[in-house]
Design a protein that fits this description.
Number of helices: 15
Strand order of the largest sheet: 1-2-4-3-5-6-9-10
Number of domains: 3
CATH class of the largest domain: Alpha Beta
CATH topology of the largest domain: Rossmann fold
Number of strands: 12
Radius of gyration: 22 Å
Shape: globular
Length: 379
């Protein structure tokens, strides 16, 4: 692995050496920190040099209360002393387990860099269901951090990955906290839930008047189908469509004849491969489902966001189309603090070292710059 990663490690070593001479300045220290921590955040190195000169973080389990009595567990990683900026890390469906090594390394490195990280674990996302009230949990997470003595309340923001990026955008737009959110990173997020669902069913994405084929991962097809199926009222409809689109079983014409009219409309939408039919088929879906999808779409909730926004997306993403982030960028055009980056060394939101030396060098440089900007924001 190290042999494949040498371009990224080499450029960071050179940057680190150059910036060591500037370590006596605030900007030099931040640049050095970015160079030191980026490899640790991206890959599972056999040794972690950042542990040689930083203190072990404190890890705590907390409970978030939101949405009329609902609760959500969360892990908090923080430096052992002082007052710090804080990050709420919002994951996709399903979220990683609390003891997943990738998640623990990310949170541990963040705390070692001098920032608190709160990681909610959503029971709904664990079962791959995106609940309408899900963003309320992340508003509650923000309000929880504001009350902590070890957190600087003026330096709290979100990092959201995959579906979590979209949920973080919705939470950051909530009037309860929108004026106070300092920054937001949306990595591999969707802009509009219905457009994303249509791309998944038709295997087609479009942007700027051009259509192109898209091959979504089976995981995405299943998760997006579940959002519609789980919201159908008739249990027979739910069972049959689950077999067809989640379990990927063949269903007979006799089975399809047993569907209610609403179930049949849902089946036709999920089975459709023709982009031209999408508007007509969407109009036939249950109003309650459409209301939920609109409530879970950042496309309708961006005007009130005041935070500095970083948008990142993998150009070859097969989980959420990269054009969703382009639409998000276009919608936010004119926002005074907007940063947009497309990458090629990720598989959705996870780094892949086999992409090639040049891609690693270029994307490593881009990520280094974005990390430096974020640390500058948090400092």
């Amino acid at each position: 692995m190290l042999r494949r990663l040498w371009p990224l490690l080499a450029v960071l070593a050179v940057l680190g050496a150059l910036l060591a001479g500037l370590f006596g300045t605030h900007y030099g220290r931040l640049a050095f920190t970015s160079a030191a921590f980026l490899p640790d955040l991206m890959v599972d190195l056999p040794v972690r040099p950042v542990t040689w000169f930083t203190s072990d973080p404190v890890r705590e389990r907390v409970t978030l209360h939101y949405a009329d009595g609902k609760t959500m567990p969360a892990d908090l990683y923080r430096p052992p002393h002082g007052r710090h900026g804080a990050i709420i890390f919002v994951m996709g469906a399903p979220p990683l387990e609390p003891d997943d090594s990738r998640l623990m390394r990310l949170a541990d490195s963040t705390a070692r860099a001098g920032y608190a990280m709160l990681i909610p674990f959503s029971p709904d996302l664990e079962r791959e269901f995106i609940a309408r009230e899900e963003p309320d949990a992340y508003v509650a997470a923000f309000e929880y951090l504001k009350q902590q003595s070890f957190v600087d309340p003026d330096r709290i923001g979100f990092i959201g990955v995959s579906v979590g990026g979209s949920l973080a955008l919705i939470a950051a737009s909530d009037p309860r906290i929108s004026a106070d959110v300092d920054f937001l990173i949306a990595f591999g997020a969707y802009y509009d839930a219905l457009d994303t669902l249509a791309a998944v069913t038709t295997h087609t994405i479009s942007y700027g008047g051009r259509e192109e084929p898209w091959d979504p991962r089976l995981h995405t097809e299943r998760v997006m189908a579940e959002q519609l199926i789980d919201r159908l009222e008739d249990s027979g409809d739910r069972d049959l469509l689950w077999r067809a689109f989640v379990d990927q079983e063949n269903v007979s014409s006799a089975d399809l004849a047993s569907l209610t009219p609403t179930g049949r409309d849902a089946y036709e939408f999920l089975a459709n491969r023709d982009p031209a039919r999408v508007p007509e088929l969407i109009e036939r879906l249950p109003p309650a489902f459409l209301d939920d999808m609109r409530a879970l779409s950042p496309s309708l909730r961006l005007d009130s966001i005041q935070a500095e926004i970083f948008i990142l997306h993998d150009r070859s993403d097969r989980f959420i189309p990269y054009v969703e982030s382009r639409r998000l960028r276009d919608r936010l055009a004119g926002h005074p603090k907007l940063h947009y980056t497309e990458l090629t060394v990720f598989e959705h939101v996870e780094p892949r070292s086999e992409r090639g030396a040049l891609a690693l060098f270029l994307d490593g440089s881009r990520l280094y710059f974005r990390l430096y900007q974020l640390l500058l924001r948090l400092s």
